[in-house]
Amino acid sequence: TLRLRGTLRTASRHRLLSPALLSALTTRCPHLQHLSLTEADLHTLPYDSLPPSLIVLELRCCEIPSLWFSGSAAPRLQRLELHNVPAFSDRHLLNVSSHGHLRMLSLSGTYRVTDTGMERAAPHLEELERLELRHCVLTDSALHFIARHMKLRVLEITSVPHLTDLGLASLATLERLETLHLDLYNKFSLRAVAALCRALPRLRSLTLDGVHSEDETVGEIRAGVPCCSFTPPP
């Protein structure tokens, strides 16, 4: 694992990475699997210059060019985590999903990813086992496409305000789902959450944020899911 912090939020114009540096890194660390970059400007860095051995890429508060996540020599990622990477778009999502074998995808603060992007990427995410969506602008349509990912075992959807019970109900097809994390800072109702829990035969863990009070429905959820965690609004 290699973790690097850039100078994106400082006055320095020094670039953290270059193709030459990555080439040397590939030579010296031929088995590097996990690269974590924070506050890095990656505009001058071709994506296929990343070490081909990478299977985990984590970007936090980074700037990326429009043509990233593509290339014949690009790494075959299995895990991608993005936190506040504002340029990440539908095109990037399609590129990385169609060129890799993602098993874990985490998108937080990626406001350029739309329902259309999720639809186009869905056929290429058949191996996905873990999906985390936070602070996104997706709607119920996206949940319908997510429901096609039949191998999902872990799903987190939080701080996505435009979702309703209709979209939540579509997730009942995820028969392998074991861990679910939701919140009520949208238009989900407790009854819809309870109905979904009943429909998921392997669900073992539920985290639900934004629960104002524990009523009969909360008790029903607790009775049906072995491990439950409810947190009140801040």
CATH architecture: Alpha-Beta Horseshoe
Class inferred from helices and paired strands: alpha/beta
Percent helix, as a range, is 10-25%
The Cα radius of gyration reads 19 Å
Main sheet properties: 10 strands, parallel
Q: Termini, distance in Å? A: 35 Å
- Approximately how much beta-strand content do the residues carry? 15-25%
Count of folded domains: 1
Query: What is the assigned CATH homologous superfamily?
Result: Ribonuclease Inhibitor
The poorly predicted ranges are: none
SSE layout:
Elements: E1 2-5, H1 19-28, E2 34-38, E3 56-60, E4 79-83, H2 90-99, E5 104-108, H3 115-121, E6 130-134, H4 140-146, E7 154-158, H5 165-169, E8 179-183, H6 190-199, E9 205-209, H7 216-224, E10 227-231
Parallel strand pairs: 1-2, 2-3, 3-4, 4-5, 5-6, 6-7, 7-8, 8-9, 9-10
Helix pairs in contact: 2-3, 3-4, 6-7
InterPro entries: LRR_dom_sf
Organism: Phasianus colchicus
GO cellular component, one term: SCF ubiquitin ligase complex
Protein described:
There is one protein chain. This protein is 25% helix and 21% strand. It is of the alpha/beta class and 234 residues long. The two termini are 35 Å apart. InterPro entries: LRR_dom_sf (IPR032675). This is F-box and leucine rich repeat protein 12.
